[in-house]
Amino acid sequence: MRWLSLSSRSVFVVVATMLVTVVAVRAIGTSAPPADEGVQAAAAQKTAAPAAAAQDPVLRGRELVINHACGECHGGGEDPSAKGWLAGLTPGSQTAVEFEIGPPPCGLEPKAKGCFKTRPRNLTPDNDTGMGRFTERQLFNALRFGLRPENTPDVVITSTTPGQGNFPKIPHYLAPPMPWPGWRHMPDADLRAIAAYLKRGLKPVVNKVPESEGPPDFWASGMTPENIGTYPAPAFPTANETMPAAKDRARVLRGRQLVLDHDCAACHRGPGPDSKGWLGGITSPTQAFVLGPCFTDEKVPCFTGRPRNLTPDKETGLGKFSDQQIFNALRYGLRPSDTPDVKITSMKPGVGNFPKEPRYLGPFMPWAAWRYMKDEELWSIIAYLRHLKPIENKVEASTDTPDHWASVVATLAPYPSVPYPTVNEVRRK
Ligand code: HEC
Ligand code: HEC
């Protein structure tokens, strides 16, 4: 089936389109969080960080790359053994495709005006065309601050204000839809681990990706707290969140961090935990995703994916589902409204409580990557979602294929993931 490539292509095109529309219509103004708030949030992040210090950074980085869907844009999906794994835009690739960024109908209409072509880059350590040119610190700065390594010196950065603490006076940001506003919320050790994996865990692939196009300010006017939220995240709890009992606090904070650093809010509504409607689901049909082959062939239908209300509202949110049902959604992609509330012990339809006729969430929801998170991580996310204040917001059901996406799911990377090292991987010094 060619669904997956076409649909994931349009996913990100539309995400990007949404982002840039927002950028275009919002007034520009910066309101940095008060200093003590930032400090509190940083402290919360510290307590929430996992005690995984002992893990090999290359292997940890691999895990993070897989469960943050990097390969959905940079090549290879969630499969480190796939051809083109993280090698960037390649002609004919199923995953690594070019984006059209700009106000609608950019990305939907080939003739649309005022659009920029952006291209996922080669993340393998090739010295001429990939990350071999940059230090691990430059990659860290790309993921934490969105600074293009090509244009940003190799220094420790201690501020996000241009001109201060080594933050460049004229920052060159990475082009959308690179989701660094989500990735930046990962703990330092995780971002370093990703850099270690890219530089030391992969074989170099020669693949020269043409430069992305962009506006003269290198996207700076769009990178405001109104559009991308604040870093560090606002102190917990905000007006949208409730304080858990002391015994649950660490888990809920861990879940909050994972929700932030997987960018759930890019689709389920953000930008930050202090914004109105946080994770309350879409509020307008224009925020839905249209997916399917209709973009290239008018005679075939498209499908509409609508990011849902993740707050605990009983009628319109996740309140009517058990924790187990949400877990089954994140691990197996099973739609909670159509899947019984049981513990599942197999991935074979009809075996170990896995439904005979599974009804999967549409591919816009990146559960194919989220499922590689550890059990503990998924349960932490669920604990956090349970500590949101309920928002009443009814999101229409998404449309799906007659087989409820089963043939798309059949093409996904193996779960659990292929052991390290694959043909694309190697232990480098
Ligand atoms: C939604 C698509 C998308 C996803 C998912 C994504 N990226 Fe990117 N990434 C891009 C695009 C597009 C660019 C090019 C930006 C530019 O040219 O300014 C990029 C650029 C980069 C760069 C800068 C490379 C350079 O040479 O400038 C790094 C590093 C990077 N991505 C790492 C990652 C990692 C690590 C992940 C997963 C944690 C990830 N990306 C996930 C789209 C994506
Ligand atoms: C790229 C967009 C996107 C991102 C990012 C995303 N989701 Fe979703 N999500 C969707 C869409 C679209 C649906 C609806 C799918 C459907 O109805 O088939 C959905 C559905 C869900 C559902 C099922 C809800 C229900 O009532 O059926 C859950 C739970 C969920 N998402 C949780 C998350 C979490 C947690 C994250 C972050 C770890 C996340 N999502 C990130 C797009 C996204």
Helix content: 25-40%
What structural category characterises the helix and strand content?
mainly alpha
Give the spatial strand order of the biggest sheet. 1-2
Biggest pleated sheet: 2 strands, antiparallel
Mean pLDDT, as a whole number? Answer: 87
Q: Which parts are unreliable, with pLDDT below 50 for 5 consecutive residues or more? A: 1-53
Query: What's the total helix number?
Result: 14
Shape type: globular
Q: What percentage of amino acids are in beta strands?
A: under 5%
**Cα-atom Rg, whole angstroms?**
21 Å
Query: Strand-and-helix sequence, N→C?
Result: HHHHEEHHHHHHEEHHHH
Cofactors, ions, other ligands:
heme C
Number of strands: 4
Quick summary of this structure?
The protein has 429 residues and is mostly helical.
In words, what does this structure look like?
- The protein is mostly helical.
- The chain has one domain (4-409).
- The protein has 14 helices and four strands.
- The strands form two sheets. It has a two-stranded antiparallel sheet.
- The chain is globular.
- The model is unreliable at 1-53 (pLDDT under 50).
Features:
two-stranded antiparallel ribbon, 429 residues, globular, mainly alpha, binds heme C, disordered N terminus, 14 helices
Structural topology:
Elements: H1 3-25, H2 35-48, H3 57-67, H4 70-74, E1 99-101, E2 116-118, H5 136-145, H6 180-183, H7 188-200, H8 225-228, H9 249-261, H10 265-268, E3 289-291, E4 303-305, H11 323-332, H12 367-370, H13 375-385, H14 406-409
Antiparallel strand pairs: 1-2, 3-4
This protein binds heme C (2 copies).
